[in-house]
Every structure is written in C-alpha cells, then in structure tokens.
Amino acid sequence: MSSKNSNEPMLDIFIFETTQLIEQLEQSILTSEKSSCYTPAAINEIFRIMHTIKGSAAMMVFNNISTLAHSIEDLFFFLREKKPRHIDCSALSDLVLEGIDFIKVEMEKIKSGDNADGSASALINSIKDFLLTLKQGDTSTASLENTQKVDSKKYQYYISQDRSKTYAHRNAFKAVIHFEEGCEMENIRAYTVIHNLKEITDQVLYIPEDIIDDDDSIEVIRREGFQIYFKTDYSYENMHEFFMKIIFLKDLELIQSENDDEFREFSKIKQDVVDEYPIKAPKLQEQDKEIQSASAQQSIINVSVDKLDKLMDLVGEMVIAEAMVIQNPDLKGLELDSFHKAARQLSKITSEMQDMVMSIRMVSLSTTFHKMHRIVRDMCKKLNKEVRLEIIGEETEVDKTIMEHISDPLMHLVRNALDHGIELPEERLAKGKPQGGTITLEAKNAGSDVLIIVKDDGRGLNKEIILNKARENNLIHKDEADMTNKEIFNLIFLPGFSTKDRVSEFSGRGVGMDVVTKGVEAIGGSVLIDSNPNEGTTIMLKIPLTLTIIDGMNIRVGKSRYTIPTISIKESFKPKERDIIIDPDGNEMIMVRGQCYAILRLHKLYRIRNSIRNIPEGIIIMVEQDGEAICIFADELLGQQQVVVKALPEYIRRLKKIRGLAGCTLLGDGSISLILDSGGLINF
Amino acid sequence: MTDIVENAIEMEEDTQKGRFLTFLLGKESYGIEIKYVIEIIGIQAITEIPELPEYVKGIINLRGKIIPVMDVRLRFKKEPREYNDRTCIIVVDIKDISVGLIVDSVSEVLTIPEQDIVEPPPMNKGFQNRYIKRIGKAGNDVKLLLDCEKLLAEGELEGLNETL
C-alpha cells in the first residue's frame, strides 16, 4: 500500500522510529510476561507505542500496519481503562508478539523497497476475539462508570450514524481538525489529509486554502483548526474512522450536513452536541502527554558514523592545538596567573569533550543481549523446555561496527545452546539437574579483548557423535587418536557440520556454527569452545578491542611510550637487586612473595636505545592474562588514562604482524603510544 | 545534473593529468603523479615501531589519523641522511592506503607533456629501476617518475621474506 506521497527522508525516519519502538515494545512485553502480570506502567507504554506506530504508519500509508496497531491499541486501551483482573498473560503476550513479528516482516519489506502487502486480518480477528472474551469475562466486575467512559466515543455519534443511513449517497461533511500542540508542520499534515481524502472524493474544499505555499497557514491551522468541506458516498462512520487515523490528531469535529444551504446553521447545533466529547477526551490526552514526556528522556537521534569520526579527529587536533598554546615556549619565564587559570579551564573542557566524543561511538551490549530473551522465550515454548537466560555484564561497551557483526553469531549460539544443549525437563530431572536449564550470556573486558561468553548447563558436546559426523563428511585430516578435546570440539565450526539429525525450525541446518566463526573472524576475533559431558558447553567469543576505549597505563621506555591495558596489570613495584635471579641461559626472573616470574625487558624486545638497563633503577609491571603472569621491565610509569585503541595503519599490518602490539593510541599531547597486548607478551 | 558532475570529474582529471610533484633525493630529481599526493608536511616526531624493515621509520599522527612513514632514501638503498628543516613528508594515498614518504626536499609541481615522457632503458640490474615507471624530460633535467603502487607492493614481499 505504499504510495507516492511518501518521500525518502520521511520513510527513513519512519523506519528508524518504528524499529526502535518495536524493540522497546518487545522488551516491555517480555519483562511483563516474566513477572506474569502487566503493570499499569507497562500497559500505558505498550498503548502509547502502538498509538505512535498506528499514527505514523497511517501517515506513511502502510494501512496493514496501522490497522493491526490500531487493534492492539484497542486491546490495551481496554486493559488500561478497565483493568480487568484475570488476564491470560501468556496468551496476551503471544498475540502482541505475533503482531510485532508481523510489523517486523512488513518493515523488512519496506526497507528493501517492496510493497508492504502482508495481510494481518487473521491476527486482527484473533485480537478482537481476545478482547471480546476479556470484555465478557469482565462485565460483571467492571464498574459502570468505566464502561461509559470506554463507550463514550461511540455514544456521541449514534445520532449521526442514524442520519447517515437516510443520506446514504452524496453525503456532505464538515470536518474541523486540531493537531496536537507542538507537532509542527501542521500545513504538511493537513496536506496529507487532503491528499488521502482526494482518493475518496473529488469534491473537497478546505480552509485555509493555500496550505503548502503560504506559511501563515500553519498559524491559522493552529488557531482555528483545519476546516474541510467535502462530499462523499462514504458513511459517517467510515469518514470518522478515516479522520481518526490522522497522526497527532488532538481534536476532531466531524459533522454531516443535510444539504449545503443548511450547512452553517446545522453545524452550530451539531457543535453543541459534539462539544461534550472534548470534555471527556482531555483526560485521555493528559495521560498521553505524561507518558510522552516520560519517553522524551530517551530521545535518540541517529548520526552517521563518518561524521563522528571526523568530529573525533577534530577534537584530537584541538587537544594538540591546546597543548601548543599552553606550553608555548614564548610563555616561558612570564608570570601569567590569569592566563594559567584560563588555560586550566580550557584543558578541563577539552578533556571532557574528548571523553564525550570517544564515548559516543560506543554502544552497550544490552540491546543485543536483551534481544535474546525473545529467542529464548519462543524456543522454550516450541521445544517444551524450561530455560532461564542470565545476563552478566550487559553494560560492556563495544564499538558500533563490532556490535553489528556479533549480533547474528550470538543469536546462533543462543539458539544452538537451547536446541542442542539444554535437555528436556524430564531428562534433566533424571540426571539430577534442576528442571529448568540456564543459559548464561556474559560480556567482559579482558586485557586487549572483549570476551562474550555463552554458557549452558546442558548435556555438553558428545565427542563420539562429533567424530562420527566428521568422518561421514570427510572433515578429519588428522589421526583421531592424536586429537585433543579442543580440536574435536572445533570440528563443529567447520562448514556443513551439524550433530542434530533432524532439521528444526531454529537450528540444525548445519550452517549455524559456520556463520558464527565467519562473523567473528570478520572483525578479527576468534571463537573458543569448551565442554564437559552433562555439565554444559561454554563458547567464548574473543573480540579485539579495535576502537574500543580502554583504561590504559602509560609507561616510558627510552623515548618510546607504551600503553598497557590497566585491567591486565596486577601490580607495579620498584624491584630490588636481591630478588632477581638469572638462570644459566641468561633468562632473568624475579621473586615476588615466594612466586617466581619471568622478566621481560621491553628495551631488549623492541631494541630501544637510551633506556634504563639496570633493573633496580627502572620499574616492574606485573601483567596477568588467562592465569599466566609476566613482569615487564620499563623505565617509568607515566600515568593512567582512558585511551581509544586505534589499529596500526593498514600498510604496517600488511607488512608484518608485530608481536605483542595490539594497536596504538594518541596521547593528550598528540604523540603516539603503542598499546601492548599482554596476552601476546606472555606467550612470547 | 549528472552530466555536470561527470564533466567536473573529467575536468579534475584533466587538470591533474601530466602533472607531477617533483622532489629531490640527493642529486636525483624524482616525480610523483599529482593525483596520489594528499599533502606535504614538514618532518615531525615519528613514533618508531619495532620489528619493521629499516625503511619504515614508524608512524606519525596527522591530525588524528595515524599514518606510516617510509624513508624513500632507505627504500632505494641509499645512504641515510640526517633530517633537517628541508626534509619533507609527502603524504600519498595509493589504493586507499595512506603513507608518508620522507624525501630530502620538495621542488615544484611540473607539467610534463606525454611526448616528453619515455620508457626507462630495459636494463633491470640496478635497484632503482624497479620503482621507476618512466622518465620525464623537463628542459635539460631528467625526472624519474615513480611507480607508487610498486613502492608499496614490493615492500610486502620483502617484509615477508624477512620474517621467513
């Protein structure tokens, strides 16, 4: 039903907003379902979201979406107003989620430029049925007052509806539309109305007449409303429905006139009757506004990443320029109190600004993680399993581009864990495990990586089955007896491998794990797997922190500066001569509290000139990664700082992979510091 | 509308065609196609990166962008020379890879018409010929026109050999 009056930017905004709303909606439904009750706040939110989707979809002429949203809105309007006590929560969630899925599918069609032509009528009918049963079940308990309130809208128009029967043809109407205050572009909205109206009838007159070209028309519409006179074959009811679809509609007066001459007189009488309507309506609007102001807190705009990158570069330049001004050699020896005061203020602002810009690109994993709730819920229902999803460290931030790459692999992993890993409740009980399984989704920063761990407490991987399957598909190129557990487990990441015999709806087409490795490798990460029979499987995605912000400790060796991720530093100390041990091969070691650690001299490793050679004069930094520790010897510590990790230039990466370097970063004064990869240094 | 854009692009290519930025390495004068050149900056603090071939001096911070710098002298196996205030870094962008080329000094932008450009003599013994695409004549001088893509690509091979 897409039409030509939807231009591109508007469509983009529509897609963006609706997608976000849908995500929000899904979230609140799932939380509500988990607590198995819909709180008034949740109902309000769902109602508001559906209302917005309905309005914007109608404006963009995606009628199937708007009618569906309308029916869900009706349902929640009922829930909100009547507060029925006995709601079948899971049935309700099912209905709404089904609706969400329908809208999602349509949105995909719209995005790819196809017509959103799906039909939601079956779904709408089931929603209506549900509403009906709710109403029937509720009539006894509902208060009389509430019923009247709900029906008030329809009630007002009963008279008119009767009339419309007598004048079934060529009905004349007068409509006065008031838009919500502050909705802006009233004239464009009015034009949309006229445009849609022209599809129904060709006899349309409206005041103000020149709505598009004349800017004053906005004022007129705001003040007096937008007045339309038109003739049509449609009934009053149909026309009312038509007008109610208008987005940001605040007030509608729709009047049917018997003939053109009586029009004015008639309208006056009618207005008196209709006036009652606005008296009751404001209550709804007030509530609406409250909710809207609450949602305004999380207003979001989308900005292209290119612009952010440029902004980041500019801020970087500014920091350098600032250092050039403040540390200007011309200022040496001058006593400039107020200058230094102002300079300090400037430094403070620039560093705050730098932090801000850096953090803009970062997004927390929480949205991606919470999407999994839905998957787990749906699959549990289908597969008759009981699974709890536990989320740890959702606040971990990753770069936007990385986030896009790991969302699909994560989904596959969760699906796999649920489908293949977790057993049926009976099976679990027989094994002496709790009836419900647990899938843990965990994210954390570890040294120079972000780790995302998907863990289940299911049956674990069966080595025999994996080997058999691999043999069938000719995937083994090594003596089986020599294969370690890890090597066997890694077979499941090969393309065309699936241990599940039947193909289920969710996983088991033998592409899943392959997709995971491809997706993660595309961003330079790796997948690690570990499993114990009957204890579960742990899959770890190791994602490099390119462009992620880390806390780093800056150190100096000779003239060069290095940054060590603070998280991997255990301690730093001034070494004493007597703690140092040298073995016959010349390897140096140091005793720390009875433990012996190898010493890694950075200057030796990277052939740095003019650095401190004598160990007691420098400093030892102990770094730890994956349970292994090493002592790095450097000249001095420079201080701790948040740094943006940048990859080394592509030319250098192509030239050679340098051991122990994770990337580089810019320091506050514009100089470059190399970031050490603690894991790489330990395994030197 | 599209015609105008296309024309503009053609114009740009036209103005860049046959123009070379010339720079000095010792006595020789080299030329590099102007379309590769992004900007010319003075020598600045270079952060050394370990384990790289000698001619890759390290990385510099060019307004927030980190680019590697290559000493063209060392690249051509010439004697190294102290950097001074005549030393320049020519920032070039070759197939989306930005690299800074350290040269003794930058001379001028020259237009060398097609008929004044000749193929280099077919002797492949010397080191330098690998990177020289053609030879341009400007007045009495001879400009060695660099093959930028080879300048970078050959390095990869060498780097690989060194690691092996």
Largest beta sheet of chain A, briefly? 6 strands, mixed
Look at the structure and give the CATH class of chain B: Mainly Beta
Residue stretches of chain B low in confidence (pLDDT < 50, at least 5 long) are 156-164
* Assembly classification: heterodimer
Mean pLDDT of chain B: 80
What distance separates the N and C termini of chain A?
Answer: 63 Å
Question: Could you give the distance between the termini of chain B?
Answer: 54 Å
CATH architecture of the largest domain in chain A: 2-Layer Sandwich
The low-confidence runs of chain A, each spanning 5 or more residues with pLDDT under 50, are: 1-6, 140-169, 262-297, 501-510
- Radius of gyration of chain A (Å): 33 Å
Keywords:
heterodimer; A: Four Helix Bundle (Hemerythrin (Met), subunit A); Alpha-Beta Plaits; 5 domains; 48% helix; disordered N terminus; B: 164 residues; alpha+beta; OB fold (Dihydrolipoamide Acetyltransferase, E2P); 6-stranded mixed sheet; 5-stranded mixed sheet; disordered C terminus
Description:
The complex is a heterodimer of chains A (684) and B (164). Chain A contains 22 helices and 22 strands. With 684 residues, chain A is an alpha+beta fold. Chain A has five domains: 135 residues, HPT domain (Four Helix Bundle (Hemerythrin (Met), subunit A)), CATH 1.20.120; 139 residues, 2-Layer Sandwich (Alpha-Beta Plaits), CATH 3.30.70; 50 residues; 181 residues, Heat Shock Protein 90; 134 residues, CheA-289, Domain 4 (OB fold (Dihydrolipoamide Acetyltransferase, E2P)). Chain B has 164 residues and is an alpha+beta fold. Chain B has a single domain, classed as Beta Barrel (OB fold (Dihydrolipoamide Acetyltransferase, E2P)), CATH 2.40.50. In chain B, 21% of the residues lie in helices and 42% in strands. Chain B has three helices and eleven strands, in the order αβββββαββββββα. In chain B, the strands form two sheets. A six-stranded mixed sheet of chain B has the order 8-1-2-11-10-9, with no helix packed on it. Chain B has a five-stranded mixed sheet with strand order 3-6-7-5-4. Chain B starts with a helix and ends with a helix. The C terminus of chain B is likely disordered. Classes of the chains: A alpha+beta (684), B alpha+beta (164). Chains A and B meet through α12, α21, β21 and β22 of A and β4, β5, β7 and α3 of B.
